[in-house]
Amino acid sequence: MRNLLLTVMLLLVTGDAQQDNKPTNPVDTLTGVLTSVSLDENSHIARLSIESGKGRIPHEIRCTTDTRISRKGKAILVAKLKKGQTIDCTGTIKSGVLDATNCKVH
Q1: What is the pLDDT of residues 38-77, one digit of tens each?
Q2: Is 16 inside a domain boundary?
Q3: Considering the entire predicted model, what is its pTM?
Q4: Residue 74 within any structural domain of the chain
Q5: Structural domain containing residue 59
Q6: Cα–Cα distance for residue pair 89/56, rounded to 1 Å
Q7: Structural domain tally of the chain?
Q8: In percent, how much of the chain has pLDDT > 70?
Q9: Does the residue 32 lie in any domain?
Q10: Mean pLDDT, rounded, for 7-21
Q11: CA distances for 33 relative to 4, 21, 57, 69, 72, angstroms
Q12: Residue 44: which H helix or E strand, with range?
């Protein structure tokens, strides 16, 4: 009986520990039409402005040298982005700005 009780307690503790292993940084996604692209060559950061949804809600996306930007599966440079293109970016929203890790141009 004592062994059974210890086994049940161990399973409960293990189950709680496994629930704590959930990712703490969920991935955020923004999709919209590019309205502007600005490049800061000194800091190597690009700021993309997009509008999304029927209400054309403005959003800002920050891309660094670590951000992968692709079109049709091939990497492209930020300089190749054009106003009016649809872009889908994933990353983490901080202070209302998406710090992008991956962007796909459609």
Answers
A1: 998 788 899 999 999 889 999 999 999 999 999 999 999 9
A2: no
A3: 0.74
A4: yes
A5: 28-105
A6: 17
A7: 1
A8: 75
A9: yes
A10: 45
A11: 60, 36, 10, 15, 17
A12: none
